[in-house]
Amino acid sequence: MTDWNSTALEKIAAAEELDLASERSNGTLRDPVTMWVVRSGDGLYVRSVKGTGGPWYRGTQSRHQGRIEAGGVRQDVTFQQATPDEYPEVDAAYREKYGHYTSIVEHVLTDGARASTLRLEPRDRPGRHSHRRPLRLT
Predict the structure, then answer these.
(1) Closest Cα partner for 48 from 12, 90, 100, 99?
(2) Which of 12, 60, 97, 128 has the most neighbouring CB atoms within 10 Å?
């Protein structure tokens, strides 16, 4: 698991919504989808109200990577399936952050929505590694 930069983690977690664009099998990004995002510990999580059958969730399953944007932060990420032992804390994070939307928040707390819980992990963009050795021409 790759750790989040603390500033990026805080900005994304504080944002009301997140835009998520998953990568197609050919590497291009799908159109972004706006959704809720929560922080649990040092992790960021999203869920599909429609569960694993939701269109945006299915899109994350082709390459398990994409790009998010929230709180002024744009980050390439991998989508990691959360484990059931993570669900209670993620549930609590949804209740705490979005509980004022009482008629809506319950939709992300169903068993179907829980099954679609993804942990967002940062990944470096190609070409951003300063530690990579330059190509040698021979």
Answers:
(1) 90
(2) 60
